[in-house]
What does this fold into?
Amino acid sequence: MEQQGYGHVVASVGELGGVVPYTSYSARKSFLKENKELINNFTKAIQKGLDYVHNHSDKEVAETILNQFPDTSLNDLEEAVKRYRKIEAWPTTTEFTEESFNHLQEIMQDAKQLDEKVKFEDLMYER
It folds into this structure.
């Protein structure tokens, strides 16, 4: 829309919303216990992706993910990556804090998607 002159980005919801662990994965404790190597390798793969983003240029990241966005030009995708980087949208680690977990729950409660908060330690699995 911006490229076509129909709009302009004035703020980022991601930047205004604070740290939100929006990418998370859930599994039964039994699955986690029975598949420790798989879970560990999956977590390492996510971390490898985060490391790639933090250690490569906007253009390199855009080129890497371009095939996932077939209707988007390399230039537009590079601009999107640049904006994400500017607002520090990508964490440096796969770990997230109790504070960010509680913030996510507040957002979910405000959206009427969660009735009551859950204790961090009741849902988090220590590797």
